[in-house]
Amino acid sequence: MIKKENAKKCDEVKSLIARVIELYGEDINRDGLKETPKRVAKMYQELLGGYNKNVDDVIKTFDSNGFRDVVTATNIDFYSLCEHHMVPFFGKIHIGYIPNGKILGLSKFARIVEIFSRRLQTQENLTNQIAEVLETKLHPKGFIVHIEAEHLCVSMRGVKKKGFTTRTTIIRGLLNKKSDLVNQFFKDVRTNFDRKTN
Q1: Phi, psi at residue 101, to the nearest 5°?
Q2: Which residues make Cβ contacts (< 8 Å) with residue 77, sequence separation at least 6?
Q3: What is the DSSP letter of 3?
Q4: Rounded distance between C-alpha atoms, residue 127 and residue 89, angstroms
Q5: Residue 89: beta bridge partners?
Q6: Which long-range contacts (CB under 8 A, 24 or more apart) does 122-129 make?
Q7: Where does the pLDDT of residue 193 fall: very low under 50, low under 70, confident under 90, or very high at 90 and above?
Q8: Which of 7, 117, 153, 159 measures 20 to 30 Å from 179, CA to CA?
Q9: Does 196 score more than 70 pLDDT?
């Protein structure tokens, strides 16, 4: 059933893309463009695949065995489409949390990011969605979600400013009261970034 629905969506998107190409004066039968509507339809199926996935299906927690310090997962790459222009924005997501009896399997952070980033998004909403999952599914004593991203709707259109970075941060629970732990989190993020660029 899902395959049939996806095939139908792809056919509709192909028709729409073909029409857009024609509206801008191109020949849809030109050699380089013949397969473009099909390719674009498949691309959108991948880039918007998060709508077909549920976070509950990927969440898996384990006993923390008494671990009570900050767990940091840094440099999670993400690519998303801005819901205002459907132009890509991309960057890194950094997550830190203090366990409250349970820890999250490390690969699950990347899966959570993948599900929400593969939807039409704003960076602010993406930050909120990841934070909400941590809060409701993991119930940590405190957590932080920090996203750094470049938006092509700023660099390739409109004001056309390259290197424009947007940062969003949500801090909850114990981390709101412990500035030393927040500083440690950002130090871990910076150290990890420095290692990758050297």
Answers
A1: 95, -20
A2: 90, 91, 92
A3: H
A4: 13
A5: 80, 151
A6: 122/82, 122/83, 122/84, 123/89, 123/147, 123/149, 123/151, 123/166, 123/168, 124/168, 126/78, 126/80, 126/168, 127/168, 127/169, 127/170, 128/170
A7: low
A8: 117
A9: no
Q: What are 146's two structure tokens?
A: 């920090």
Residue that wins the pLDDT comparison between 4 and 53: 53
Average pLDDT, the chain: 92
| Amino acid in the structure at residue 19 | R
| CATH 3.40.50.1980 fits domain 2-47 | no
The answer to whether residues 59 and 38 touch, using CB atoms and an 8 Å cutoff, is: no
Q: Please give the structure tokens belonging to residue 190.
A: 């910076």
Confidence of residue 195 (pLDDT cuts 50, 70, 90): low
Nearest to 117 by CA among 79, 153, 74: 79
Give residue limits of the domains in the chain.
Answer: 2-47, 56-197
End-to-end CA distance of the chain: 49
Cα separation, 20 vs 23, whole angstroms: 5
Helix (H) or strand (E) holding 180: helix 179-197
Q: Please, what is the Cα angle at 24 between 18 and 29, to 5 degrees?
A: 45
Catalytic site positions: 82-85, 123, 151, 153
Closest to 47 (Cα-Cα) out of 114, 124, 108, 111: 114
Task: Note the CATH architecture for domain 56-197.
Answer: 2-Layer Sandwich (3.30)
